[in-house]
């Protein structure tokens, strides 16, 4: 090898190469961002369309269906989800990760523009916005006070803290929860209004007409120009009380005649508590590509700067801090990295029995790992759990090349050759094997680079980081290792006791192995039998191993979803949520829980009859119970509480508060879907592996349905907008105008007195005015009102009406088993028109199944072709590739033995195992070819190659296995992912190495007897050239 020759001849050159690698790596390390996982940005575009007064059914047919038809033709769409509600259509379009967000948003805008003419005239134009993040907060900032009221505390948070936090670098929004918004409340009395023949619209018009600030021109003099403005007169409750609503002759109606007026909370229908105490919460949502750790640290610095200026008795705190898990997981990987380096060096020392000899391969570890940071930086990656895990696994691999070089140099020294010559000849002899194994390991990951979707992004950073470190290890093995061997490696004339003991045991092992491998070479069916058994067991084990998308992770926090009966009032829901909270409060402090956070109503589209709790757990080392065990325990306690449901949900890496099983049933009408999902629910309840079964559709939610007699309303000159506006103001409330106080602007909130509207009959107190005649008309003359049970939300998935069945998984029951079970229930019990889809983690699992099989097959083909090119033969690579089933059988056996699932981490390790398994085969086959070139008989060449390569094979195998031991013993944050990879590497390499040393010689003897070495043609050509020259 030219590179190793140059390094032996020019030691300074070899040293400088390694020093440059270290320098570039250190500089890159200082520039790299830190995050939990690679940046997974899923482009999402949302479409919001208002259609005031329309029922959910009408919104579905006239808005949602029309817009979805136009969206269906856009490229790159992964899914379309929609909700049709009273007066509103919401559509979310998710694109593949490869799609450019700007292109996606422009395509959606164009489609909406083309669809607008088909919408009803009364509907507003669709509003389109981009949303590439999850929208989930990474940190909750809590504000608690002993001196301020809830209204004052909310006002303080809105006026001061919210704005400062939203301006922090990397923050997308700072959203307030559980507050009491300060407003001027005007509670209209419908009876007093009816007595004075006033409508809600009259009050709205009077407020907007009188409470206004307008420019009134400019007064210009010779020397100056002064603008004039008309001030608004209404800045306190007393001023609003004297606001004139109507004046006719001597009769004047003031606002106080028909309403109760005062400042206070807008509504008292939200609750936010930490450890049982009321708080105001500000949720920090990062921008899509922001580093969560940096964002959280920036927010905490801002909090620290702000804390001295808080009002007396007011404190700041945090909950739902994502950085605890992220930083904990990264710190654990760093610890694993250090332990792995120590273990690998220890194994080297035991094998070599000499500190000086151990130093040579040990040096490749820091050089290769540090240099890998340069690859991470050049590729635009980050320091995250996957890139660090790649470095952990690389430790066992980067020493392999140096071990092969070192062992061969040492062998030549024992043959009596001088150090310089031994280093030159030893490195040259194994140079091809070093390059071949490196190329194979790199080629294994080529298909991974081209994978799409979330899994492709995750795999890519891991694969390229590992490939980069292996490439650098090969470079160091062929430069620094031969140079150090020529300078520091001497024949040990006074070996230590450890060295003597190791040599004796290895010599015995080699002698015994030679006798045994001779049997395998001569009785070739022995190797073939082992190979066939490995392939068969791999198939059987694959079908037996549980399968999942991700391993179940204890992330140190969990959700509790609380749901009351449909139509529950806020007081009833508050009482139910606090009943659930009371179960958990005793477990705070002395138990496993560090804090509890309660909010009702819940997030987003959870509904008014919902609540959510976030439980933060103590550090992994401080508790003797996992999140999963705690979840099972409290599930039983929650079941004892009547009239409310509570579902504990352990957080996954995908975030959110959804169960792992998200099974979507679509097609047909909602009546059919309800019938199908009810049947599936009943059958699924019989499966003990599923818990917390639920559906996202309830057709019995109490609603008051208002039907307008449009013909009569038109005759009387009353528009649907007038009717809708009256109902909105009197029942729901509306911000009509604003007022100023302490230099801040606040809303004026107008609504009917709540106690006056307790049933459908009470709506008869409302009146509207004719736009044509001015006639005062009672509302129930124009509308019919009835209380019905209907679904408030009509959901679609991929343009089909859909209902989602969700469930949690019991311990020992995998996501793959759950989805296969539900799929079979559909096949056995539902008609053919039922359409099945998946969401969330279930969708990622199903999508990943086929892509992993494709990548694995492609990796096998690429490795085979690369080996064929290197060996100049199609038989030799086949012999080498036969080691792969041996490793797969061992790895799958390890998964089954430990009860671990086959998930994306273990799948990634399986792909890597292709390279790890073939390395040993390459060493034997390549050396056998060299011995045959030297004239050794075929059988003797195979046996001799196997014996002479045994020691480096065992050393590389044990260093790789030793490198995986810390992953197997992992604990703390993120240990589950490390454990999944560790099992594959430990069992796969162990079994593969133990069987390869027998199967490869046997298969080489069976298949390669009539083959030539890669140098055969070259030697033949040289002989012919020499003959021609002599002639």
UniProtKB/TrEMBL annotation:
Subcellular location, record wording: Cell inner membrane
Keywords: Cell inner membrane, Cell membrane, Membrane, Transmembrane, Transmembrane helix, Transport
InterPro entries: AcrB_DN_DC_subdom (IPR027463), Acrflvin-R (IPR001036)
MF term (GO), any: xenobiotic transmembrane transporter activity
Protein topology in the membrane: Multi-pass membrane protein
A single cellular component GO annotation: plasma membrane
A Pfam entry, by short name: ACR_tran
This protein's record includes keyword Transport: yes
Annotated transmembrane regions: 12-34, 333-352, 359-379, 385-409, 430-450, 462-480, 525-545, 852-871, 878-898, 904-925, 953-973, 979-1000
The organism's place on the tree of life at top rank: Bacteria
Protein name: Multidrug transporter AcrB
Organism: Endozoicomonas montiporae
């Amino acid at each position: 090898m030219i590179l190793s020759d140059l390094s032996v001849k020019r030691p300074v050159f070899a040293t400088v190469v390694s020093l440059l690698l270290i320098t570039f790596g250190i500089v890159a390390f200082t520039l790299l961002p830190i995050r939990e996982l690679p940046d997974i940005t899923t482009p999402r575009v949302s479409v919001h369309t208002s259609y005031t007064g329309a029922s959910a059914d009408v919104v579905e047919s006239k808005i949602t269906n029309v817009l979805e038809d136009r969206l269906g033709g856009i490229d790159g769409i992964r899914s379309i989800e929609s909700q049709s509600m009273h007066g509103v259509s919401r559509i979310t379009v998710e694109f593949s990760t490869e799609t450019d967000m700007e292109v996606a948003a422009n395509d959606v805008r164009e489609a909406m523009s083309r669809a607008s003419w088909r919408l009803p005239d009364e509907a507003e134009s669709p509003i389109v916005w981009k949303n590439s993040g999850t929208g989930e907060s990474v940190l909750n900032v809590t504000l608690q006070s002993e001196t301020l009221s809830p209204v004052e505390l909310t006002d303080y948070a809105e006026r001061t803290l919210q704005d400062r936090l939203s301006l922090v670098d990397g923050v997308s929004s700072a959203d307030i929860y559980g507050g009491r918004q300060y407003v001027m409340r005007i509670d209209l009395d419908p009876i007093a209004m009816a007595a004075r023949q006033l409508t809600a619209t009259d009050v709205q018009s009077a407020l907007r007409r009188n409470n206004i600030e307008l420019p009134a021109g400019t007064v210009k003099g010779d020397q100056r120009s002064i603008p004039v403005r008309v001030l608004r007169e209404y800045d306190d409750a007393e001023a609003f009380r004297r606001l004139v609503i109507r004046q006719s002759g001597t009769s004047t109606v003031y606002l106080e005649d028909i309403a109760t007026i005062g400042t206070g909370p807008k509504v008292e229908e939200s609750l936010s508590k930490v450890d049982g105490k009321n708080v105001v919460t500000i949720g920090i949502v990062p921008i899509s590509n922001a580093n969560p750790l940096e964002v959280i640290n920036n927010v905490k610095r801002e909090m620290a700067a702000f804390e001295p200026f808080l009002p007396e008795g007011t404190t700041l705190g945090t909950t739902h801090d994502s950085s605890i898990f992220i930083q904990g997981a990264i710190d654990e990987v760093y610890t694993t990295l250090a332990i792995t380096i120590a273990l690998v060096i220890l194994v080297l020392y035991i094998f070599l029995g000499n500190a000086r000899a151990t130093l040579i391969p040990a040096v490749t570890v820091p050089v290769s790992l540090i240099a890998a940071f340069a690859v991470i930086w050049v590729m635009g990656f980050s320091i995250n759990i996957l890139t660090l895990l790649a470095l952990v696994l690389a430790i066992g691999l980067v020493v392999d090349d140096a071990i092969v070089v070192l062992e061969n140099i040492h062998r030549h020294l024992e043959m009596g050759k001088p150090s310089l010559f031994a280093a030159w000849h030893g490195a040259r002899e194994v140079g091809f094997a070093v390059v071949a194994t490196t190329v194979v390991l790199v080629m294994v990951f080529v298909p991974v680079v081209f994978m799409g979707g979330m899994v492709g992004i995750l795999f890519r950073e891991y694969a390229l980081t590992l490939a980069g470190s292996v490439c650098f290890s090969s470079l160091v093995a062929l430069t620094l290792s031969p140079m150090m061997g020529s300078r520091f490696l001497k024949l040990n004339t006074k070996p230590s006791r450890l060295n003597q003991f190791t040599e004796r045991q290895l010599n015995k092992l080699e002698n015994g192995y030679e006798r045994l491998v001779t049997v395998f070479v001569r009785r070739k069916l022995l190797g073939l039998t082992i190979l066939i058994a490995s392939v068969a067991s791999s198939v059987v084990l694959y079908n037996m191993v549980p399968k999942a998308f991700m391993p179940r992770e204890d992330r140190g926090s969990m959700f509790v979803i609380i749901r009351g009966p449909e139509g529950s009032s806020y007081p009833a829901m508050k009482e139910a949520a606090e009943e659930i909270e009371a179960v958990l409060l005793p477990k705070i402090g002395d138990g496993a829980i560090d804090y509890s956070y309660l909010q009702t109503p819940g997030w987003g589209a959870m509904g008014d009859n919902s609540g959510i709790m976030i439980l933060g757990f103590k550090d992994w080392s401080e508790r003797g119970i996992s999140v999963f065990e705690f979840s099972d325990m409290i599930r039983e306690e929650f079941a004892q509480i009547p009239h409310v449901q509570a579902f504990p949900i352990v957080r996954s890496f995908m975030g959110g508060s959804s169960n792992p099983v998200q099974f979507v049933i679509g097609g047909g009408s909602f009546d059919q879907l309800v019938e199908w999902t009810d049947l599936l629910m009943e059958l699924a309840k019989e499966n003990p592996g599923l818990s917390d079964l639920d559906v996202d559709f309830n057709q019995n939610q109490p609603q008051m349905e208002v039907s307008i007699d449009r013909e009569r309303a038109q005759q009387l000159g009353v528009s649907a907008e007038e009717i809708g506006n009256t109902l909105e103001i009197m029942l729901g409330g509306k911000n009509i105008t604003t007022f100023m106080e302490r230099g801040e602007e606040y809303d004026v909130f107008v609504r009917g007195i709540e106690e006056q509207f307790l049933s459908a009959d009470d709506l008869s107190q409302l009146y509207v005015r004719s736009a044509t005649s001015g006639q005062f008309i009672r509302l129930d003359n124009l509308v019919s009102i009835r209380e019905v049970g209907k679904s408030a939300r009509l959901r679609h998935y991929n343009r089909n009406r859909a209902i989602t069945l969700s469930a949690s998984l019991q311990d020992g029951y995998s996501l793959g088993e759950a989805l296969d079970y539900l799929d079979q229930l559909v096949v056995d019990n539902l008609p053919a028109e039922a359409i099945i889809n998946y969401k969330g983690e279930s969708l990622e699992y199903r999508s990943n199944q086929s892509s992993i099989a494709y990548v694995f097959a492609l990796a096998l083909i690429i490795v085979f072709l690369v080996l064929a090119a290197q060996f100049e033969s199609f038989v030799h690579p086949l012999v080498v590739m036969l080691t792969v089933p041996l490793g797969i059988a061992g790895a799958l056996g390890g998964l089954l033995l430990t009860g671990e699932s086959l998930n994306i981490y273990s799948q990634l390790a399986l792909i890597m195992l292709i390279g790890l398994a073939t390395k040993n085969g390459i060493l034997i086959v390549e050396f056998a070819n060299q011995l045959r070139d030297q004239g050794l008989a075929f059988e003797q060449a195979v046996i001799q190659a196997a014996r002479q390569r045994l020691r480096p094979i065992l050393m590389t195998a044990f260093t790789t296995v030793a490198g995986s031991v810390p992953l197997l013993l992992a604990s703390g944050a993120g240990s589950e992912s490390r454990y999944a990879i560790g099992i594959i590497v430990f069992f796969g390499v162990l079994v593969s190495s133990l069987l390869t040393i027998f199967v490869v010689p046997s298969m080489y003897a069976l298949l390669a007897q009539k083959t030539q070495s890669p140098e055969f043609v070259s030697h033949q050509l040289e002989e012919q050239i020499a003959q021609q020259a002599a002639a």
